[in-house]
Design brief:
It contains 14 helices and 11 strands. By secondary structure, the protein is α/β, with parallel strands linked by helices. The chain folds into 2 domains: 239 residues, 3-Layer(aba) Sandwich (Aspartate Aminotransferase, domain 2); 93 residues, Alpha-Beta Complex (Aspartate Aminotransferase, domain 1), CATH 3.90.1150. The strands form 2 sheets. The protein has a 7-stranded mixed beta sheet, with helices on both faces. A 4-stranded antiparallel beta sheet has the order 8-9-11-10. The model has no long low-confidence stretch (mean pLDDT 96).
Amino acid sequence: MTDHPRGFASDNFAGAHPDVLAAIADANDGHVPAYGDDPYTAAAEQRLREHFGDDTRPFLVFNGSAANVLSLIAAARPFEAVICPESAHMNVDECGAPERIAGVKLYTVAAPGGKLTAELVGSRLRSIRVGDQHAAQPRIVSISNASELGTVYTPDETRALAELAHERGMLLHVDGARLANAAACLDHSLRALTTDAGADVVSFGGTKNGLVAGEAVVFCDPALAADFEYIRKQALQLASKMRFVAAQLDALLRDDLWLRNAAHANAMAGRLAHAVKEISGVRITELVESNAVFAILPVAARERLLAAWPGELPFHLWNADTGEVRWMTAWDTTEQDVDEFAAAIAHAVRGR
């Protein structure tokens, strides 16, 4: 294929890490039992328990939206509801799947920086008719770590939300599509950000961090995992050749590949933010804590950048009204990629 400049619209644009591809090739050896009854799946599940806690119950699925929706199915009944930020992936980018497939209502909250707080959740709860048979009843608080705006929750922030949820008879779900990036930012373990902070169920992401396709639903509260194997099968997420999903997750979680990939992506986002923050006409709008940079670009600069960048999309237009764009870095973003892109942004803003 023809080489072309890399874009920064999404970390999903990146390919798979060579170690992950090698793990798939290694797993492609002979015959093993199907549907997860194989040593590769057992190894991946054990690896997940090592990272999230010995008593957790992990299940492998294909993609992140499924991990979120199946988590909700397992934890909530159809007349119950989820409190989440307005910017949550499950609210904005899952095509109504939580409502259509899980059957739950989403109660959204305007959350600065994409992050809920106990105060925001408490205020939203006061606006819900708890105990009224005509209203969907709150059951789950869902957060994304890292958030859709690239910000991260500390263990204390997550714990405060978990404590509030548990006091109200609710559960805490963590959408961890980029949990590795949050852990790398804070220099904490995956367990410290989830199980130890009171989370009940986690959607753990691998696709954005170097996998071909592979995520996991991890029940920090193992009681919630009852009958989940049936939920996964009915929702079309039970892989017959599970070993190929499992081999990827095993490779990612072995020898801290997940952490190296995420830390590198974060560092490249920091490098990009540092390079563009002094460009007149560019304004960074969110804290750069993971692998995302949000910024305001003038309309003319966006158009010039699109015209001048012949490869992948140079940005994702996050808000057409304000001109806010999102730049994402990935495990394979290089310093040269960042420096060339920052120079292109500067030229586009200056009109040449």
